[in-house]
Amino acid sequence: MQSALSTEHGSGGSEAGYRLCREITRRHAKTFYFASRFLAAEKQRAIWAVYAFCRTADDIVDRTLPARERLDALDGWRGDLLRAYDGRPDHPVMAAFADAARRYAIPLQPALDLLRGAARDVTVRRYETYEELLEYCYLVASTVGLLIAPILGYEDGALEYGIALGRAMQMTNILRDVGEDRHLGRVYLPAEELRRFGYPESSLLDGTIDSRFIALMRFQIARTRAMYDEAAAGIELLSPDSRSTVRLALVLYRRILDEIERNGYDVFTRRAYVPMRTKLFTAMTLARPRALHVGRER
């Protein structure tokens, strides 16, 4: 297994793939896409390629197919990944990802770990402890940070903060999507913490919002905000031209927690999101003047 991408594959066959990756990111990750627009054009494209690779794995997991077929499809996507790192991509998304990986020396192992985490969404539907959930968050989200770090540029010590940011963002997704996940038969909130707050899983599956659930959510939100605080300390270890983008992504994602509170902790019938006007105001507030010129798409 190669740890560095073969240099035999150039960018000639990747342009259509990059366009597809941009569209996938724009359609499915509005906050991520918005923040990425403050990067230089080449970095934007590479970031979109990483996202599209990850999103494709998510889409495989969420198909309404038997578990064995979804696991087989993930194995197929893993095979596509290995061929891409051998200079032989045969999927448009992988062609773009292979080109980005060649340009920025993106490591293979986090991508393999992410696919291992995606498989857990097929085989694991409950988590007993917070420690188990953190491991899952690392596999499906912190790995994304490790994939995009070479694109952003970083100094020694930055990766640990990136791992913390990935976990914070995934916990935010989990809290926002409690209602959606229950319909898929998944409960990510640790069972031991449901018991601690006296809130049975049956109430979660019924969509019950009571004092127990609110206390549970307040605890989860406070802990996730502390993770964002930890991650923020690492932004200064990134390349100067990437700091505004990561800072913007962190602040906007963290504000999803504010929206959950504003919705009265109703994560069953209302989806928490940050309005575009808030995103624009935040960008104007946080971004340096030279970063406010959004990178031109190719």
> Outline, from the CA principal axes?
globular
**Biggest β-sheet, characterized?**
none
Please provide the count of β strands: 0
Number of helices in the DSSP assignment: 14
CATH class of the largest domain equals Mainly Alpha
Number of domains: 2
Give the name of the CATH architecture of the largest domain: Orthogonal Bundle
The CATH superfamily of the largest domain turns out to be Farnesyl Diphosphate Synthase
Secondary-structure element series = HHHHHHHHHHHHHH
List keywords for this structure.
mainly alpha; Farnesyl Diphosphate Synthase
Structure, described:
The chain is mainly α. It folds into two domains: 1-123, Farnesyl Diphosphate Synthase (Orthogonal Bundle); 126-289, Farnesyl Diphosphate Synthase (Orthogonal Bundle). It is built from 14 helices and no strands. The protein has helices at residues 15-28, 30-36, 41-61, 67-85, 92-104, 109-123, 130-152, 158-176, 178-183, 191-196, 201-206, 211-232, 240-262, 276-286. α3 crosses α5 (92-104) and α4 (67-85) runs antiparallel to α6 (109-123). The two termini are 33 Å apart. The model is unreliable at 1-12 and 289-298 (pLDDT under 50).
